[in-house]
Amino acid sequence: MSPASQPEPLLIVTELPTASLFRRMSCWMYEGMLLFGVIFIAGYLFGALSQTRHAMHNRLGLQVFVFLVLALYFTFFWYKGQTLAMKTWHLKIIALDGQALTQKQGLLRFFYAWIWFVPPLLLAGVLGWSSLQGLVAVMIWIPLWASLSKLHSDQQFWHDHWARTRVVDARSQMSPTAPTIQI
Predict the structure, then answer these.
(1) Tens of pLDDT along 7-32?
(2) Three-class SS state of 115
(3) Beta bridge pairs of residue 92
C-alpha cells in the first residue's frame, strides 16, 4: 500500500472546549421548542399545497415532507455552524479538524441523531405498546443516551463521534465586551 493511499490519522482540534452536557441538553430542549414553529409552518405548507382537508388524510406524505424539511433545516444550519438555539446557548458545531461541517457531514449527523428517538420507538412498535407507553420509553431513553456521552473521551454524544463532529462552547470566540452568563 502506497503512503498516499493510507488514511490520515485522526486529528481532533481541541482549541474550543467541549460544551457541558447541561448546556447541550438545554440547547436540545430549546431547539425542540423552536421546531414547533418549523413543523407548524411545514405542516401548513404541505396541507395548502396538497389540498389535504383532514389531518389523517395523506399522513405518510406529511411525515415524509416534515422529515425532509427537518433534514434541510438542520443540514443548512449545521453547515453554517449553528442553529438558532445553538446561537442562543453559544454552542457551535464543527468538524473534528476544527473546520465548518460539509453539507454531507451535516446530513450524516442528522441521520445519526435519530438515535435519540428510533430505538425506543422501535421497541414500542415491536412490543405493541400504546402511544403513551412509547412516549414513556422515549423519555427514559433520552437521559440514558445523553449520559452515555460521559463514556466518550471528548464527552461528545456518540452520534457526533460517528459523524466526526464536535459540539463546542463558542463563548471563547465572542468579543470580550459581549455579555455572557456562566452556566
Answers:
(1) 554 545 557 899 999 999 999 999 99
(2) helix
(3) 168
